[in-house]
Design brief:
Layout lengths: L1 E4 L1 E3 L4 H9 L5 E3 L7 H5 L2 H8 L3 E4 L16 E4 H8 L7 E5 L1 H4 L23 E5 L4 E5 L6 E8 L2 E6 L43 E7 L4 E4 L4 E6 L3 E8 L4 H24 L1 H18 L1
Parallel strand pairs: 1-11, 2-3
Antiparallel strand pairs: 3-12, 4-5, 6-7, 7-14, 8-13, 9-12, 9-14, 10-11, 10-13
């Protein structure tokens, strides 16, 4: 992989953000965007546990999906409070994602300000909390609706690997899915890395970015950007989603949600092995061309 460092700015004007990052669709880290929010000082494990600790939710381990895995199927269930107790004290490779804690504790929305000066068309009904124990991994994927994301880290450090959407075939994207066939676990550690360049040779030419998010950092991810995240420490973050600004992006997002996902779900239910083998052949054919 050919990895570059991301631009990191303390603050940025709306004009510069639009010109340098939003229009050319380049990710950037903004250090101080969240540091004026009450959430920056108020949000901790105890605060979140008090807000929604009794809510039951799905949790996910580090196992990559296979031919039989239904979309977004949880690996276990627990209450949010029990989950926090499990991960806050040290390594625990369990994570949650797409947890709309604000539907259970709407007062939390008063703790941050929507950055409308940077992005418009925010989906303000769906701010989402992402939480992971030290060692947990969010495997390489892109967001299915192709929304732009402002991802703010509040606790713990997280390492993020990013690639433009156009690199999809070098990343061995599974047809009719938003996932990569390759495993990027511990990509930054030569001794622990699971990146297999012999099995996935096109990865050598994939061009992307590598960054570590510290508490308070906000990462702008343009719509369709591939991302792989590893929790270096137990922590949590919030994603604010904004609809894709292009007509083609909106239409592709709708197709992904309605058409692509439905076809994949049907085929996994009716002929999972044949479907998986067809996908694998297609993946390698497209990667070879790339």
């Amino acid at each position: 992989m050919q990895l570059l460092s991301l631009d990191v700015v303390d603050n940025i004007s709306a004009e510069d953000f639009k010109k340098k990052y939003y229009e050319p669709q380049i990710p950037v880290v903004i250090r101080n965007l969240s540091k004026e929010w009450p959430a920056y000082t108020k949000w901790n494990w105890d605060y979140l546990k008090e807000a929604a600790g009794d809510k039951t939710l799905g949790i996910y381990n580090n196992t990559k999906s296979d031919a039989y895995t239904p979309i977004n199927k949880a690996d276990d269930y627990t209450t949010f409070g029990e989950y926090i107790d499990m991960i806050r004290t040290g390594p625990a490779a369990w994570r949650i994602f797409l947890f709309n804690i604000f539907s259970h504790a709407p007062h939390l929305k008063q703790d941050f300000t929507w950055p409308d000066h940077l992005l418009n068309s925010f989906v303000k009904s769906m701010p989402m909390l992402f939480v992971g124990g030290q060692g947990s991994i969010t495997h390489m994927h892109f967001d299915i609706d192709l929304s732009h994301i402002l991802h703010t880290q509040f606790a713990g450090r997280k390492r993020v690997l990013l690639f433009p959407y156009e690199e999809q075939h070098k990343l061995y994207r599974k047809p009719f899915e938003v996932l990569s066939l390759a495993d990027f676990s511990n990509y930054y550690d030569a001794e622990k890395s699971k990146v297999d360049y012999e099995k996935f040779p096109a990865l050598k030419t994939a061009r992307g970015y590598d960054v570590i998010l510290e508490p308070g950092d906000t990462l702008f991810m343009p719509g369709g950007y591939w991302h792989h995240m590893e929790y270096l420490e137990s922590g949590f973050a919030m994603s604010l989603r904004a609809l894709n600004n292009s007509v083609s992006g909106k239409l592709k997002g709708v197709w992904n949600l309605v058409g692509m996902r439905s076809i994949d779900t049907l085929m996994k239910r009716t002929m999972p092995i044949k479907w998986y083998e067809w996908k694998k052949k297609k993946i390698y054919d497209l990667a070879a061309r790339a």
